[in-house]
TrEMBL record:
This is TRAP transporter small permease protein. GO terms for molecular function: transmembrane transporter activity. The chain crosses the membrane at residues 12-32, 52-69, 90-112, 132-152. Belongs to the TRAP transporter small permease family.
Length: 174
């Protein structure tokens, strides 16, 4: 059961990472299109700024879980270096539990915002008139993935498995 959960979270992290990558390329393409349009056509693209902002928010939020799994999150290792391996592991567990609580609050906030926008049919007050539930769904998906990644990290710490992947994508110790 634990192994199935860890495999599931690794799978969802790969999907989240893929979608974030696609959104990053889309963001870059829209900005290049905007530069070309302004430079050669003397007019702005109506959608580029709005959709680029949505894409960038999606990149940040969908990238949280995969960044955690790859060990790319910001960390302060001063406290971890003060004690032995058991002390460091205990601090990691406590920090992960606190992070889970905060991430659940973040998820609840994104979910409430998404649900309100969806139920009321709220739209971005712009030329494109985009339904806000669409970009907000990316925030919800990113928050869900982040909570799953933190829970998987906690499980890995408790069962004394390496919680982060190496650059090659392999688990430490393999």
């Amino acid at each position: 059961m634990i192994r199935a959960f860890l495999l599931f979270t690794d799978w969802t992290a790969r999907i989240s990472e893929f979608v974030a990558t696609v959104l990053l390329y889309a963001f870059c393409a829209m900005m290049l299109g905007e530069v070309f349009s302004r430079g050669f056509l003397n007019q702005s693209l109506a959608f580029s700024w709005e959709y680029s902002g949505f894409a960038m928010a999606g990149v940040f939020l969908l990238g949280l879980g995969p960044a955690l799994r790859h060990g790319k999150q910001v960390r302060v290792t001063l406290l971890l270096s003060r004690g032995g391996p058991d002390f460091s592991r205990s601090i990691e567990i406590i920090a992960t539990v606190v992070a889970i609580v905060l991430a659940v609050f973040m998820l609840e906030a994104f979910w409430t915002t998404f649900l309100t926008s969806f139920e009321r049919g709220l739209r971005q007050p712009s030329y494109m008139n985009t339904p806000l539930a669409i970009p907000q769904s990316l925030a919800v998906a990113g928050a869900v993935e982040f909570v799953l990644a933190l829970m998987a990290r906690l499980v890995r710490l408790v069962i004394r498995e390496e919680p982060e992947l190496h650059e090659t994508g392999e688990i430490a110790g393999d």
